[in-house]
Amino acid sequence: MSFTLALVGRPNVGKSTLFNRLVGKRLALVDDQPGVTRDLREGEARLGDLRFTVIDTAGLEEATDESLQGRMRRLTERAVEMADICLFMLDARQGVTPADEVFAEILRKKSAHVLLAANKSESNASDAGVLEAYALGLGDPIRISAEHGEGMADLHAVLMPLA
Ligand code: GDP
Ligand code: MG
């Protein structure tokens, strides 16, 4: 049995970087629902011996008539419905921002299975942000650097029991 992991969080926290690291060139499927294709990318992830489906919530960066908050909410709720687990990503260098709080609220309300990742943690400039992340009440943050591939063993350790 495998699982589906959705990467959620505000623009620029590193979701696509992690998606690309997990999926490599194996990007395969896209959702065929109107309006969703552009916004949700699905791929087959590999992390050590684990194989699972990963969803990247994209499209928040593009300007449209819909407010960013509205799109964040809609996309995140959709991703939560599709996924068994959400990996809520923060930029640890920036700490917890008001936009992050909005996501945390959506995820708490949806009572999804949520894991917290403090990304961009490759330097100790991220320590304060990691500490802030504990206050979200979404469990212990996993320190990762999607860009540098750090913390992947810790991510593996957290996901392994779910596989
Ligand atoms: P998304 O909008 O959440 O999909 O974020 P992206 O994956 O597009 O990343 C946004 C920016 O953060 C890009 O310039 C990435 O290169 C950078 N980035 C992603 N992960 C890391 C990381 O672990 N460390 C650092 N320093 N930068 C990162
Ligand atoms: Mg992206």
Q: Based on CA inertia axes, which overall geometry fits?
A: globular
Task: Give the low-confidence spans.
Answer: 28-37
Number of strands: 7
Main sheet specs: 7 strands, mixed
pLDDT averaged over residues: 87
Order of helices and strands: EHEEEHEHEHEH
Q: What share of residues are in beta strands?
A: 15-25%
Strands of the biggest beta sheet: in what spatial order? 2-3-4-1-5-6-7
Question: What's the N-to-C terminus distance?
Answer: 6 Å
Please report the number of helical segments: 5
Structural class: alpha/beta
What is the chains' assembly state?
A: single chain
Work out the helicity level: 25-40%
List the bound ligands. guanosine-5'-diphosphate, magnesium ion
Query: Whole-number radius of gyration?
Result: 15 Å
List the helices and strands and how they pair.
Layout: E1 4-8, H1 15-23, E2 27-30, E3 40-47, E4 50-57, H2 68-82, E5 85-91, H3 98-109, E6 114-119, H4 127-134, E7 142-143, H5 152-159
Parallel strand pairs: 1-4, 1-5, 5-6, 6-7
Antiparallel strand pairs: 2-3, 3-4
Helix pairs in contact: 2-3
Bound molecules: guanosine-5'-diphosphate and magnesium ion.
Description:
The protein is an alpha/beta fold and 163 residues long. It has helices at 15-23, 68-82, 98-109, 127-134, 152-159; strands spanning 4-8, 27-30, 40-47, 50-57, 85-91, 114-119, 142-143. It has a seven-stranded mixed beta sheet, sandwiched between helices. A hairpin with a 2-residue loop joins β3 (40-47) and β4. α2 (68-82) runs parallel beside α3. It is globular, with a radius of gyration of 15 Å. Mean pLDDT is 87; it is low at 28-37. Bound molecules: guanosine-5'-diphosphate and magnesium ion. Magnesium ion binds at residues 15-16, 58. Guanosine-5'-diphosphate is lined by residues 11-17, 119-120, 122, 145-148. GO terms for molecular function: GTP binding. GTP 1 binds at residues 9-16, 56-60, 119-122.
